[in-house]
Amino acid sequence: MRNRAGHAAATVLSWGGLKHDASPLSAGSPSARRARRRAGAWLSAVLATVLGGAVAPGGQAPIVAQTNLTFTVMAANLTDSPQRYEGPGVRILQGLRPDIAALQEFRYSNSTPADLRTFVDLAFGPGFQFYRESGYAIPNGIVSRWPIRQGGSWDDPQVPDRGFAWAQIDLPGPRDLYVVSVHLHSSGGASSRAIEAGVIQSNIQASFPADAWVVVAGDLNTDSRGETAVTVFKGFLSDSPVPTDAAAGGVDKTNKRRTKPYDYVLPSFSLTNRLAPVRAGGQQFPNGLVFDSAVFTPLSAVPPIQYEDSTNCQHMAVLKAFEIQYAVTNWIEAAAPSLTIVSNRVLVWNSPAGLLFRVQGRSGFDRLSGWEDMATVGSVTASYRFAVTNMARPQQHFRVVCP
To answer: How far apart are CA 60 and CA 280, in angstroms?
Structure first.
């Protein structure tokens, strides 16, 4: 509300015995001049409530809160014998519900754009996005619950039928995740895979920010975790802890016969302190999970997966989980707070918990501008307090502003 002089309605109070005056005071009014004389050397205050940067009876105010998000990343070479996704692989994806999947041999039906969209909708959900490299017989790709900002493919110098697909994923919060889906050379031996690992490392270091969150995931076709390719990856990524098919102990091998560690989820060191247990079927797997439908019990907890589905896929699915924190701003309806002066020159007011107010001050009754920030005040309860300690000027006006 404003008076006819155009000034905001306010309550004038004083620590020096000045009486409460609920009427608006214009800067040059006789009432204001009398108030200044009566206040003398005492500090007086004009208390005005402000929301959204303007004097108002109320409005929308932001509550900023920290929230946690746990997401899973899966390495998935779950195709059947014709090297395309069919019932078994689709059911495993449906039952485990990964947030992000690095797919190898990313083919479905005739692999037209419509076919691929149908596959992602069926296996993940209509809201998921995907990137699939083009120009290859058995391409790699990435599927994501969150928007894919951009994607691309790097050439694999050892094989002609796929590259190294990558995607930049817009995770909730301020940081993106870079995922690289890889399928290393099986018949070329350990030396060929070591070359591929070095090429992937060089491309990551040249293409992604130095402190980026990166996950390399997929089918490495390695005979053991001591192979040179794994050693190269472990120079800039982490293979710890090693996922298995059990919450404790278990087997880490991921090929069809469960004899070799073919498939990996390898996060950058910047992500390792955010590792979290994988949750599947009401169970927790602290080191991650190698999913084998012939081992996991009860399968009824991960429908529609069937007992022989993993056996009918080329490899086992491998999952790791990560937990991140980020700020969320929620806008709420909030009435303008009523400010009160209490003893020891303290301003108090009530408002919904979790808001941040800027306490502003200015000197002189004749000035309608020139507000200066004095402090930021927050509270985990509905009660807010601010002690006035800057007494350099004989008089001060105060207001609180949100946001």
So the answer is: 40
